[in-house]
Write a structure and sequence with these properties.
Length: about 170
């Protein structure tokens, strides 16, 4: 498995995956384009995306998106926005590898922690994030709208401390 930057040519598949995944964020084409375009000089909000693909047959198995607010002379504020692994590729450690790529990026930016939020019912993702060193940081009651007849759902807030030579984070 290899991790590489998300490219413009990957966006049609990413759009399809997101359209077919009810819990995926509703990002516009412009939102997705901003992930693959390099930030302009002096831009403080940075969004990046990475793809996991098989080395032997370059086919995308999943992707991850993160963002950072980077202000000179201050630690970057990072958020893991979305991780997706194709159904047929789940259970192979791809999600963990994608999360680790984001943790490395946040470390390179000088972040002290990275945050995320997820639906309380997403137990599979909760376990993944815990395996990657994230801990519970709070919740937002009734944050996500319900699907069809389902009631609104809480958001679980998580964070992962990033060590800079102190050995206090599982990066």
């Amino acid at each position: 498995m290899r991790i590489r930057s998300l490219l413009e040519g990957d966006l049609p598949l990413v759009r399809r995956w997101m359209r077919d995944t009810p819990e995926a964020p509703a990002w516009s084409d412009d939102d997705l384009a901003r992930i693959v375009n390099a930030p302009t000089a002096g831009e403080r909000r940075i969004r990046r995306g990475w793809v996991a693909e098989e080395v032997s047959q370059p086919a995308m198995a999943g992707f991850v998106v993160a963002n950072a607010l980077s202000i000179p002379s201050a630690p970057a504020e990072c958020e893991l926005e979305f991780v997706f692994v194709a159904t047929q590729a789940r259970g192979q450690g791809i999600g963990r590898t994608l999360v680790r790529a984001v943790l490395e990026w946040a470390t390179d930016l000088g972040a002290e922690e990275i945050r995320l939020e997820l639906r309380a019912s997403n137990i599979r993702a909760l376990r993944l994030y815990q395996q990657c060193g994230f801990t519970m940081a709070g919740n937002r009651p009734r944050y996500y709208p319900g699907y069809y007849l389902d009631p609104p759902e809480d958001a679980v807030l998580m964070r992962c401390r990033i060590g800079h030579g102190h050995g206090d984070a599982p990066v």
